[in-house]
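Is iron/sulfur cluster placement plausible here? Inputs below.
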Amino acid sequence: MAENLLQKVVAESGQPIDLCYQCRKCSVGCPMVEEFDFPPNMVMRMVQLGMKDELLKSKAIWMCISCETCGSRCPNEIRIAPVMDSLRAQCLEEGIAPADPVTVALHSAFIESIKTFGRVHEATMLMNYKWKSKNFTSDLDVGIKLFLKGKIPLMPKKSENMAKIKEIFQEAGK
Ligand code: SF4
Ligand code: SF4
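Reply from A.M.:
I modeled the complex. Tokens:
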């Protein structure tokens, strides 16, 4: 089990996870570490040890914002963002309930907007996100202010290159 998880994540992320020696430079620089249940260096150790159940149920994998700060600080040039991507994908593939469903709802609404319009259309993306998250009232005041300033156009405008967008999604099997 330990070998399987490590091998799968290394293959999917392309990162030399076995080189991690727990210097913690990633965790010290991570802007999201306070939201994580396991700091980035611990996530790396857990992958090395094959702690799949704990990782796929963790909040850490959903709180990473892929800022790449850890990768720029790591003495072994390990980028943790692709590691988190692999763990997130495994969580969804295996039908495990995500520890942070609201973040998953936002990711999903974002991707569906890109798939439909080739770019983000904020109004429909936000409605989709609210529906998926059942979080109808949060940020309503900010949303109304932005709408009144014309920052959230009602009518979507599709990308001129929808064929390419379709091709990208097909290649990704989505
Ligand atoms: S900075 Fe790199 S080597 Fe150090 S703990 Fe993080 S991933 Fe491991
Ligand atoms: S990529 Fe993720 S783990 Fe790395 S510093 Fe940014 S938020 Fe933290």
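Short version: The pocket of iron/sulfur cluster (ligand 1) is lined by residues 20-26, 41, 44, 73-76, 78 (CB under 6 Å).
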